[in-house]
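testing teh design pipeline on a random one, pls ignore if ur not involved
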């Protein structure tokens, strides 16, 4: 069957209009409505949306699809196909994607990440010492932001003093991940930020080439697979891409996670009493309030989802946040349970583009969340309304709390 959906004329977005600020502030009711009433939904703008866990997982893991059309072109870019080195791995499909991902993954192994855990623990403790001494904290400025930013600087082997500068550049540059749909001024600001990042990294890579060590940048320079290496431009784009993909998202995991722990004091208490729950608590934060609620693909074949055959070349969005609360997969999906197991959430996407930084994100999240539970006995949110940051993702710009 090839059918087009007849939208409810009163609400063609079925309660989940991405442009609606109320939906952005609290997307959960809209996601529920979408999943229950139109789990396979053709939007008024002509893209499709999937919101059931089974459909999202099947799209990402099993259905022939990609970040571009099957011939490598992109509908928003015109007929010429960009095969040059200037693309981050998340923007391209195999075989180009396979090659880039393999080379970067060489420098980014779970073992290399795990070696940084003691430093993450130490850093969280230092930051919380300072906050406790002050008697209050902004969870974003004082913990969620400095943990990934100081750690990535140290991992890359670049001076921590430079981090304020590229913190802002990376927030602005996240919007380039959706450059085809973002407002022109937002794209322009993102491009300027990306140029600044490129200039900055070019200088750091040049320094490093003469003096390779064991840091992440040196590992990326050295990364080699069957005689193949990243070209200088590829290296630059992938290094910046890692920063853009990994930095704001981790701030979101830590800040949203701590917010949920404060809103669920009995769960915070459980984590405090049993630090062995670090891994399941972090994954529950990702499921319940993850920073990236949606990812997208283009179909490379006609594909059946629900009652529809969605035609090849359609743009299709997987609503990871909605899938992560699907009662078909999760018991009591609306309850926040730091001991939840199993927890097959889709917060890191799936298939060929499954988040390459999931080990790093989880390790930082685990250390920050358990550190907070260990050190901060009682706390309360100063504001119940969230002030969002400047990035594309669901990341608060500030989260003041008081110790009481
Ligand atoms: C809580 C933190 C994070 C979340 C929720 C997250 C989530 C995601 C998601 C949803 C995708 C797209 C997957 C898809 O479409 O199937 C992705 C891709 C990616 N992420 Fe993460 N991410 C996080 C942290 C990180 C970190 C710390 C890094 C590295 C420093 C990173 C590097 C990447 C890369 C390189 C890709 C592209 C992979 C590819 O195209 O093969 N991410 N991430």
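output:
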């Amino acid at each position: 069957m090839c059918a087009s959906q007849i939208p409810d004329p009163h609400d063609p977005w079925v309660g989940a209009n991405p442009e609606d600020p109320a939906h952005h502030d609290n997307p959960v009711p809209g996601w529920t409505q979408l999943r229950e009433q139109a789990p396979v939904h053709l939007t008024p703008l002509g893209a499709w949306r999937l919101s059931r866990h089974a459909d999202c997982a099947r799209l990402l893991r099993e259905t022939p699809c990609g970040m571009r059309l099957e011939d490598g072109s992109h509908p928003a870019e015109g007929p010429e196909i960009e095969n040059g080195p200037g693309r981050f791995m998340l923007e391209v499909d195999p075989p180009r994607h396979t090659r880039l991902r393999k080379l970067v993954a060489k420098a980014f192994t779970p073992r290399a990440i795990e070696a940084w855990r003691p430093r993450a623990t130490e850093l969280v403790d230092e930051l919380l010492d300072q906050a406790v001494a002050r008697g209050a904290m902004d969870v974003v400025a004082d913990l969620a932001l400095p943990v990934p930013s100081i750690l990535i600087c140290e991992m890359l082997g670049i001076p921590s003093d430079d981090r304020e500068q590229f913190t802002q550049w990376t927030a602005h540059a996240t919007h380039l991940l959706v450059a085809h749909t973002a407002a022109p001024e937002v794209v322009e600001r993102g491009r300027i930020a990306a140029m600044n990042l490129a200039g900055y990294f070019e200088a750091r890579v040049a320094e490093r080439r003469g003096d390779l060590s064991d840091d992440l940048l040196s590992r990326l320079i050295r990364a080699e697979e069957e005689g193949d290496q990243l070209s200088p431009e590829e290296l630059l784009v992938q290094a910046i891409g890692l920063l853009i993909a990994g930095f704001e998202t981790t701030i979101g995991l830590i800040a949203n996670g701590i917010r949920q722990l404060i809103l669920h004091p009995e769960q915070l208490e459980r984590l405090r009493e049993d630090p062995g729950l670090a891994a399941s608590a972090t994954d529950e934060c990702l499921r319940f309030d993850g920073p990236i609620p949606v990812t997208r693909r283009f179909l490379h074949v006609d594909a059946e989802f629900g009652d529809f055959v969605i035609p090849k070349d359609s743009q299709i969005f997987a609503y990871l946040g909605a899938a992560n609360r699907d009662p078909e997969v999760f018991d009591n999906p609306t309850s926040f349970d730091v001991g939840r197991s199993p927890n097959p959430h889709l917060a890191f996407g799936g298939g060929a583009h499954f988040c390459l930084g999931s080990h790093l994100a989880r390790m930082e999240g685990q250390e920050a969340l358990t550190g907070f539970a260990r050190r901060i006995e009682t706390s309360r949110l100063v504001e119940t309304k969230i002030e969002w940051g400047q990035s594309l993702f669901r990341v608060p710009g500030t989260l003041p709390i008081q110790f009481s």
